[in-house]
Amino acid sequence: MLILPVMAMAQTRVTIFGDSYSTFEGSIPSTHEPWYAPEGSTWEKKNNDVKKVEQTWWYQVIERMGWQLETNNSWSGSTVGYFGYQNENYQPRSFNTRVAYLGEPDIIFCLAGTNDSWTGENPGEYKYANWTENDMWYFRPALARLLSTMKQNYPLAKIFFILNTQLKDWTTESVHVVCKHYDVPCIDLHDIDKQDGHPSQVGMKAIADQVIEFVKNEAAK
Length: 221
Fold this sequence. Notes:
Blueprint (H helix, E strand, L loop, with lengths): L12 E6 L38 H9 L2 E7 L20 H4 L8 E5 L2 H5 L20 H15 L4 E6 L5 H13 L4 E3 L5 E2 L2 E2 L1 H20 L1
């Protein structure tokens, strides 16, 4: 049976590691760009109905499971590697750059890969050691280094990868292959309602429901 810290006496500490889907103004580092924000904020998106932090998928998961937020290191537009939109260098906001700043979590939820699928980045080749900085411009080696680093830096944490819907086929395939290599459970989302390419209130609840169901099933194995 897989033992998760769900039943521990101390409150389970959860880190959220993501892109725009996991942001909310005021809940992420001030240096990171949010996508979701409250009404009246300069960041508010008029074409999405998520206006309260309580409506985000991660807040719902933590609240319903009785957990505690360790940190939310999410940044809108972030990519796993360095290849950003308009061929820009996204190294400062990339997951591989931010992986050192996840606190001391018992559980890590990593929702990544969406922007990599959208930027026009090339998948590259699967590579599981001896990465170079040049490798970080390709999704597969960048993702491998990310998961390797996460497991090395947070050996006591249970890591879950959350995979978005409506991604390019090679993105989905790559995530499955790399997650299997590192024995990281992958939560394949399905039927997520979106507004402007981002989960709506309905979509956020669906993500929360699916994440909780997956985690409970893992714990019962």
